[in-house]
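Appendix C reproduces, verbatim, an entry submitted by the partner laboratory led by Prof. M.T., so that reviewers can inspect both the input and the predicted structure.
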Amino acid sequence: MRILAAILRKELLQLSRNRGLLFLIFACPVIILGIIPFALENNTRISVGIVDHDRSALSRDYATRLVHSPEFTEVRYFPAVRLAEEAIRKGEMEMMLVIPSRHESRLQHTDAEPLKIAIDGTHPQKAQNYVYKTQRLLENPDEQIRVHRLFNPTESQQFYYLVSLLVLVQTLIGTCLIALNIVAEKEAGILEQFNSTSLNRFTYITGKLLFIALVCLAVTVVSLLFCHYAYGLSVEGSVWQYLLMTVLFSYPLLSLGFLLAVVCKNQVQTVYLLIFSLLVLVLMSTMFTHLSSMPQWARLTRFFNPVYFMLDISRMIILKGMELQTMQMQILLITGTGVLLSGAAVWRMLRSPERW
């Protein structure tokens, strides 16, 4: 324990003397959480062109609904469909509403011609939002539907992305810090000097892993405080349970970074492997897309992706207030992934021609 405490003290002194790295560890998460959520906000602002061939009280009511809706920023009238399509082609409008002639008078008959909506579909998700919001706005007021949106009554996308970015920060800090730290000491020859001492390399690596796990925990606390005071995000569940899961989640991340550090010979190789592995983990983790939008083979990769399970746990605890007792499978798979990665790293280290 004295040796382990000495290693932790050494890592703390080394980090405190590196002011640039210390700034990056705590300032970059705040910068990421302070800027990116505004770019990922999914509240669309729609500009629509109306081609009114009916010119009735009902068509004017449709236009009034669009004008007074905060989701429609601009409403313009066009005399012909061709002119409205040209405006959409140039990017001046995102949507066109065509009201056919005698629409109001034929509304009670079976031969009534329906409203027509033409949408710029180059961005499929935005186009889907346009259709949904326009249909909801123009629906018959006599047939109202009451919708109760659970866990997010304001329909804000920021909280969803904040949780994702919080896990992203934990992933970047945990994996990159341990991998680059070990490889930098390999290049500097520090690990070779340890071979001439009685220090056990497993004790040395354990001290590094424990210290960086504590750093990840501190970064998570800072990030949660920033999200609370900047965006009003509150943890609905137990904060202590979430911090405990952060420590557990750092285990497979640190094991992955340790494995990369054992395989690589210099920091350039490490950076390239970090970019490759983290891109795969993040993009396949449903951080920016839903699991139902993936093909079947891509869904199966989630069982080997600890980022996916941490995202699932974070959303359950932070947004829904669930307890850890309901997430035993996720916890088991995160732990199992960490055991596999750490076992592979130790096996590769023992077979390495370098004595470190």
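Residues 46-143 form a domain with the abc type-2 transporter like fold fold (CATH 3.40.1710.10). Additional entries are available on request from the coordinating office.
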